[in-house]
Amino acid sequence: MAYSEAQKKATAKYMKNKLDDIKVRVPKGKREVYKAHAERQGKSLNALIIELLEKDMQEH
After folding, report:
1. Hey, where are the domains in the chain?
2. Dmax of the chain from CA atoms?
C-alpha cells in the first residue's frame, strides 16, 4: 500500500520530534547476519539493539 504525501510528512514529523538517530558501523557482511539473528527472535534489528542496551544498563 502506497503512502500519501500527508502520511509521509506526518511520519517524518513524528520521527523528528520523538526519536533520535544513532549510526552504528559494523564489519562488512555482518549487518545481514545480525538482522537474521534478530528476525529469528521475532524482532527488528533496531528493537534487538535497544533491548540489549537496556538490559546491559540495568545490569550495570
Report:
1. 25-60
2. 45
